[in-house]
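Q: My labmate handed me this sequence with no annotations at all. I'd like to see what the chain might look like in three dimensions before we decide whether it's worth expressing. Could you predict it?
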Amino acid sequence: MIKAAIALVFCLSAGLLAAQNRPPAPPGQQRPPRQLDADRYSIQQATSDQAQLHTIAFDGLAYLTGDFAADTFLPPGKVSDYFGFQYMRDIDAAEGGHNTSFLTRIADNMLAVLDDAQKAKLVALAGRQQADIRRFAQMRLPLIAAFRRNLEGNAPAGTALSRQAVMRYSASLYELDGKLAFDRARSTAEVLRSLTPAQRAALAKLKFGDSRTWPDIAEQLDRRSMSHEDDVAVMTYASEMFSWYAGSLEADTYFCPERHGMYFGGFGMKTLPAMGKQNYSISTALTGDSGEAFLQVLNDSQRKLVTGILDQQKSDLAEIVTTRRAISTELRRFLDGGQGDEAKVLALSRRYGELDGEMSYLYATAFAAVGKSLTAAQKQTLNGMRVNDPNDVQGPFLYSTPIRDPQIANTDFLFAAR
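A: Here is what I predict for the chain of 418 residues:
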């Protein structure tokens, strides 16, 4: 049964590893570049049982061997992600999409094309959005804390984690995400529509999905003139402006399997070690290999708690795809010179939040049940699978920025009577 479950999960891993394990080129010859492979990175792949289960298993390992601080880590690009950047990252022909320099290179190339007035609009957008960007990260913390309480058995007496309360709270979180996305689309589309023919010609030389066409250029922002948070926002806007401009509706709709249920430390285990390291590539095999090892440690009943999530979340995932496409369609109206419907985007975003909240509830309850049933030997084995580098940046975090003593509201409202 173990082998059957693992085969279901990790047939995708073989595909992910194929690019890494290609034979080396003969001496004196350059290895041919990988061709763009839209079939390997698509909505169908992202929502498949294989992709979802290996991601869920990895999250389970990260959650049960991690802590609150690791759970809080979140790359800034995972917020308001309707601009095709994740797809451009995943299909990169140079296989550089998961290198720490990827975003910086395309952002600097985009900024080099813009004139001072256009760049000033991005800086102004960062300043205008900064409070809500920070509020989004802060709003995640009660969910993370409540899920940890549920795992540790610290729920209020006579209560259990409430599916409906989690869904309602997640809806408000995603409504804020939709507000940020709508404002970003409106403002960056204004900049893109103002491009001159010469600027458009310069952008045409930079290919979507092929970072080999992006020259290495000097930094384009004077970081001394803005806060770290504004700098991060502007670089995010610039990179996503290019992927939005050069991409498509399908690229905007696409998400990686790790996009949902982002409260369980997966990014803290996978992405945090890249912090502060130049030219660091995150392994595309880590999720699959670690998730496989996690499932092998579990007994049959524990494993069924994890694999059972697939059927439980299937309808939510399907609706998430249609919801993301509807939101992306509204945002693209700005790019085409029209006007998006803000009320529609916010309503769709609230529904998106309900769906993600329900999936997060499923993960939280399944992981807690597994965690409470682990033997001492299983715990020791799982803890031994986590590599803790004392030199890594220490959390808790607001996105990827360490913070001290985060202020978290009482989370009793996320529990209800049994």
